[in-house]
Target: Peroxidase
Amino acid sequence: MAREQLGICAEANLHGSYLLCNALDGQEAMLRQKLARIPQMLQRLSEHFSEAMLTGIVAVSSHYWDHLYPWHRPDGLQAFPESQSEYFSVQHSTVDLLIQVRSDRLDVIHIVLQQIYQLIIPNVEVVEHLSSFRYLDGRQLTGFLDVPFNPRGLRRRQVALVEDARSTRFAGSSYLHFHRLVLDQKHWLQLNTTQQEEIMGYRKIDGKAIAGDTIDESSHYACCLATQGGEYSLLQQNMPFATLKQQGSLQLSFSADSQAFTKQWQHRLGLTQPRIYDSLLDFCRIDLAAAFFVPSLSYIEAAARGEFASTTSDLLK
Model:
C-alpha cells in the first residue's frame, strides 16, 4: 500500500519554512538518493521532538520531473497556469524543488533545515528561503479566517491524495500549486468590515458564508467554490508571511485532481464568465508561482533504489 508524505494532510502548525531550490546540472542520480532521505529525517526528528508536531514535504516541479524521474510522468502534470487576464497577472517561477517544513517549534524547524541544507547543498542552489507563521486563530492578514470551506476529517485525504483506483503507480501522491500572494494591506485596511465581507463572501468573525441571496458572484468565496460541484476539491495549507515592507500569504493547494486548481484559478481570474472575477485580487499580487508534484514515499524510495531504471544509463539521466 502506498504511503503518502505526512505533511500533505497534516493539521495546521504555528510555524512554516520553505526552501525553493534549483538542481545543479547532472545531479539527478544523487538527488534521487538524498530526497528519499529527507522524509526519513523528518520522521526521525518528529519522534525525537514529539511535542513539536513536525512535518513536511518534498515536491518536484512540473518542468523538472522528467529529469529527476524520467520513467513515469503523472497524468496532467503541468506548469502553473499562465492564464492571461485583464484583471490580474502572475509572475511565474521555474524552481525545480520545493521542501516544506512545519512545526509548532521554531527552533526545531531551524534544526531540521540545517540538516536538510547540509544534505542537499552540494547538489542544488537555494533560490528562496521563505518563512510563515500562524496568525491569531488561523486567520490571514486580511483579518478573516483562512479557507473556512477547507475539507475536514477524512475528506482531506480524499481530496488531496491520488487514489489507487486512479493510478496504482502514483497512489498516495498529490498535485501541488504554490504561490506567494502579496497583500495591499494599506488599501485593504481603508475598507470597513461590511465592505471587506462583501469582497470575501463570508463573515469576518466566524467565517460563515453570507446568505446566498446577498452574496456577490465576484466574492472570494463564490469564485473559489464556483467550479467545485458542491464540494471543495482542493486542500489548502496557507500561512501568512510578513516583513516591515511586505506581507501576505504563502498558499499551497493540494489535490488528487490535476485540473482542480486550474479550473478554480481560471474562474478567479475572470476567464470563464464575463466581468466576474475574484474581487479579492484587486488587493493582491502574486510574485512567485509554480506547480509541483508530491510523490508518495513509496515512489521516492523505489526510485532511489533504482527499481524503475531498465538500464544503468537510465539512472544517470
User: Anything to note?
Assistant: The radius of gyration is 20 Å. The first helix runs from residue 28 to 48.
